[in-house]
Amino acid sequence: MSLITGIDTLEIGYSIDQYALSKQFKDELEAGLLYTLASTNHTDYATIELEKQKFCIRKCPARWKYTLFNDDISMSLNTTPTNGLNYQDLHVTFRSKYLWREQWMVAAIHFEEWLHQWANVTDIKISRADFCTDLNKPLPLLSTDKNELVTRAYKKRNYEELQKPLSVGFNSYSYRSDFTGWVLGISPLLNRTYDKLAESFITHKEWFIDLWNQNGYTPDSPVTRIEFQCRRDFLRETLPRPTNTIEDLLENSQPIWNYLTTKWLKLTIPGESNRSRWKPTPFWEEVIDSGKYFLDNNQITRGKQTLPNYEMLLKQATGCMATASAITPPGRRAEAEFKDGLIKPEYIQKVKDRQIQYGTFN
Question: What span, in angstroms and rounded, lies between the C-alpha atoms of 198 and 277?
């Protein structure tokens, strides 16, 4: 029985062409970062508030300068956007507890509505999504040669298992001498199958038990997590369309799960020589069947979008007009051409489309 099914990790990158961040906020952000860096206490972080949300500040080890984080998200950014020139300007990681508490789709929608209040987003790319299900069953034990695993996984490292084509890239894990699971594959696509009950105690995530209890969990009974980590190089190749936005992820979630559990990896009952025809074990049939629960998220509908920042849009329009006027070719008048464009049918239609989108159409 599937106790929970959904997205356990979600990372999204956004291209931004303008922030509505005041000079005071930027100064406070820089001062907060310097405070954190100077602190000898590694848990002593400066704090800051952004659009009614409170964050701690730390230095980002990657291409961004700042990381703002709280119990729900971790967000890395620079304060000078490039419209995704070399890389996406803002990267957010949703914490697992937040995704399960709110449902992943709702959490992502709420974040984007909040983001649009202070940033003009021009492009969205999901960089990682982990699909998973927790079954109220013990972890399957594998044979020595792991012949029952039929997989398309590979790993570009030298393991002894490379001599055994059916266990390429296989790593097993144990805790206190007990077999607790395996990892199969390498980025951009890998599988983790492991004892989730044991892991929840080791990582202090006992709150998962509360989630399981809502779906008929028997106390102290075994729980196995089947998890697929999908990164950008895989997500951009999904069909019928690439998985870029949260709407794409919602639409593609069940087809992706079907591919992962019927094509990319199967736990099977060995039979004839043609391995592709080996039938899945009863355990794996439940894994495949749990994909239907992704459809539950289809009941989530997006409400009226939060209106973009009006003052920021006016500043953007003024800035664009000033640039066009400054580079106007001889014989052209940018202001006059702009005014003429405001009465064209295609512009009027665009206004109507935006009114419908933001719920302001009368």
Answer: 34
Task: Say whether pLDDT at 130 is over 80.
Answer: yes
What is the C-alpha to C-alpha distance for residues 128 and 183, in angstroms, rounded to an integer? Answer: 17
Distance CA 49, CA 57 (A): 10
CA distance linking residue 359 with residue 12, whole number of Å: 26
Q: List alpha helices for 260-333, DSSP H.
A: 282-289, 310-326
* Exposure string over 303-316, b if 16+ CB within 10 A, otherwise e: eeeeebbeebeeeb
pLDDT digit string, tens, across residues 221-254: 999 999 999 999 999 998 778 999 999 999 999 9
| pLDDT tens readout for residues 249-260 | 999 999 999 999
Residues 23-62: pLDDT tens digits?
Answer: 999 999 999 999 999 988 878 899 999 999 999 999 887 7
Distance of CA 208 to the CA centre of its chain: 20
Question: Which amino acid is it at 238?
Answer: T
- Count, in order, helices (H) and strands (E) of the chain: 11, 14
Q: Which residues contact 141 (CB under 8 A, 6 or more apart)?
A: 179
Which structure tokens are listed for 223?
A: 């729980």
As given in the structure block, the two tokens for residue 261 are 């559990």
What pLDDT is attached to residue 302?
Answer: 32
Show Cβ contacts of residue 142 under 8 Å, excluding neighbours closer than 6 positions: 148, 149, 182
pTM for this prediction: 0.77
Q: Is the dihedral of CA 361, 17, 104, 102 positive or negative?
A: negative
Distance between CA atoms of residues 9 and 132, nearest Å: 9
Q: Write the pLDDT tens digit of every residue in 163-173.
A: 233 333 456 55
Report the mean per-residue pLDDT for the chain. 84
* Strands (DSSP E) found in 239-305: 265-269, 279-280
Q: What values do phi and psi take at 278, rounded to 5?
A: -65, 135
- What's the one-letter identity of residue 41? N
Which DSSP symbol is given to 241?
S
Helix (H) or strand (E) holding 51: none
